[in-house]
Design brief:
Chains A, B: Homodimer. The structure is a homodimer. By secondary structure, chain A is α/β, with parallel strands linked by helices. Chain A has helices spanning about 15-30, 45-50, 55-65, 75-80, 90-100, 125, 165-180, 195-205, 220-230, 240-250, 290-305, 310-325, 345-354; strands spanning about 1-10, 35-40, 70-75, 105-110, 130-135, 145-150, 155-160, 185-190, 215-220, 235-240, 260-265, 270-275, 330, 340-345. Helix content of chain A is about 40%, strand content about 20%. Bound molecules: 3-isopropylmalic acid (IPM) (2 copies).
Chain lengths: ~350, ~350
């Protein structure tokens, strides 16, 4: 199979971790006889530094021309502390999601048995957890109109959804539920928000087409609670952009570390694959970042964008084996970890490659 | 001391639990020589059933005339599954918050040592956690304009904040931080939302008046994660209405159960005290509900609205003792609980009274 992959390292630890995602793709191509070609492009703070634009035109063109995109991370502390900055790294990520029509963000919460102890949740609460989040990605308060009054004392964002936006992601989530545990939990705040009431109406409509799937509607506050209380009860979780942002980060703690979670953004065209962790500037360039989420992003790319199941499995098996052999990065190490097996980004990447 | 207290039992398990809150207030009056008088009023589904209005005029009048309000819970499953219902129980709660100017919702996350094992978090992660949330309660997407297009296919809610709304709650939160651990974490989503950028600007301004307090700004997705990962790191948490709704419910898991958490809503006038749990219709009327959150609401009322510290302490001591004696309601029982000490609402209420 011939595929052209765009690597967008982005900011902070992005470049370090995507290096290993790419290395794994090369290894897979070699082992399974595929031909993967690569290109690289800038986004976020890196884009601003080079061109003044968090999503340079060239990056968008390259993205559209590629078969899949491997992304690192975005963001810079400089902008976080300056709420009045006009140009911000995150705008690049939001714009590429919109431009590529990446309306569905899939975040699987998989649990590696070896990492049960790295979580703050009790192992008996965790064991058996297997959740697939569908987070809507191109609507909601993220993209609704933003306003600031002239005296700068009032600010607003419009939380807005249209029927078709909810429909298309609901269908994807129900399709996934059909080949999984046939349970779907839709999360909203329909007791307060009109956008959530529309959300719930549409999901109720789509649910009728999937009578085999057991549908539950849950308020976001309750969902945030249940996720800690009893994560096992969830199978497919379907939710809006903002609620999905919050819930999936919370759920990452279940998997032991953000460093262990990847996400796939899909929709109208090219798929976009990235770790769910951020740019983590505090550890950037120190060979401390966990490359496994980037490598897991590659597994998602192989499976979802290229339909290469065996290749995807080879990647997750390699991660599994590395963990079984006792190797850990700092973020997933615990009191029982053999200190000599706590590795930096590079050595961890190499272990998986081997 | 003479005080007039309005009891609003509300829906579901509300009446069962407020009965015990009220009984504790009577006991305290007797023991400490105060004169507490009581009245009762309807709200929520109970209000709709009786008058068609989730907040009957009479309730609002009585509320304004009282020195403090003890509230139960709100909501009914009937409306949750009907997103197109025009009149909803929750409107009563939202309206009374707005009418009484209850802009600051205080939610202390206290940990009773006896309940360490009831949480899904590991005891070593939990131990020492002591968080005071300040959730803004009369602004945000809760109260911004709601719209539905004529064809009903598009729906929106306006997320909106003005400077003074952020200022007044920020000041309350900083004042609390000064008499606690002198650490404040403000939670927003300033990398995406304009309302959050205003929020952050204002908090940065107020922070300058409290140089002794260590201020941190955190994105909501990260906060939802850190709360599970390392709850001990938080002292005072300041956040907007919607984010606060989500974070405090999530945090309730830390305290072992929602049944153990109370909240105080304060602002321009009469204070409003309630458990953070919902109406829990599935167990309503079955003598299963945990009355401790309502009793803890009473402790908050005694301390915050009436300035009666010793009385408040007598209440929390009584709860402490009951737990130490091994008594539990079902929600906070665990594998080690002596089965004969698992009590219903009534017996638990009585134990605390004793
Ligand atoms: C960086 C930020 C804009 C982004 C989001 O909120 O969507 C991130 O948190 C994510 O979840 O991908
Ligand atoms: C019932 C609902 C409107 C309410 C809210 O979202 O504020 C509740 O969840 C709460 O936290 O008090």
């Amino acid at each position: 199979m011939k595929k052209h992959i765009l690597v967008i390292p982005g900011d902070g630890i992005g470049p370090e971790v995507t290096t290993w995602g790419k290395a794994v793709l090369e290894k897979i191509a070699e082992k399974f006889g595929h031909e993967f070609t690569f290109d690289e492009a800038l986004m976020g703070h890196a884009g601003i530094e080079a061109t003044g634009n968090p999503l340079p035109d060239e990056t968008l063109e390259k993205a559209k021309a590629s078969d899949a995109i491997l992304f690192g991370a975005i963001g810079h502390i400089k902008y976080d502390n300056d709420p009045s900055a006009k140009v911000r790294p995150e705008q690049g990520l939001l714009k590429i999601r919109k431009e590529l029509g990446l309306y569905a963000n899939l975040r699987p919460i998989m649990l590696f048995d070896e990492l049960l102890d790295a979580s703050s949740l009790k192992p008996e609460i965790l064991k058996g957890t297997d959740i697939l989040f569908f987070r809507e990605l191109t609507g909601d308060v993220y993209f609704g109109e933003k306003k600031r009054s002239e005296d700068r004392n009032t600010a607003s964002d419009l939380m807005i959804y249209s029927r078709y936006e909810v429909e298309r992601i609901a269908i994807k989530a129900y399709e996934a539920a059909m080949v999984r545990g046939k349970k779907l939990c839709s999360v909203d705040k329909a007791n307060v928000l009109e956008a959530s009431r529309l959300w719930r109406e549409v999901v109720q409509d789509i649910a009728k087409q999937y009578p085999e799937v057991e549908t539950e509607h849950m308020f976001i506050d309750n969902a945030a609670m249940q996720l800690v209380k009893n994560p096992k009860k969830f199978d497919v979780v379907l939710t809006a952009n903002l609620f999905g942002d919050i819930l999936t980060d919370e759920a990452s703690q279940i998997a032991g570390s953000m460093g262990m979670l990847a996400s796939a953004s899909i929709g109208d065209g090219t798929g976009f694959f990235e770790p769910i962790h951020g740019s983590a500037h505090d550890i950037a360039g120190q060979d401390k970042a966990n490359p496994l989420a980037s490598i897991l992003s590659v597994a998602l790319m192989l499976e979802i964008s290229f339909g290469l199941k065996d290749e995807a499995k080879a990647v997750t098996d390699a991660i599994d084996k590395t963990l079984k052999d006792g190797y850990r990065t700092g973020d997933i190490a615990d009191a029982n970890t053999d200190k000599s097996k706590i590795l930096g980004t590079k050595l961890m990447g190499q272990k998986v490659l081997e």
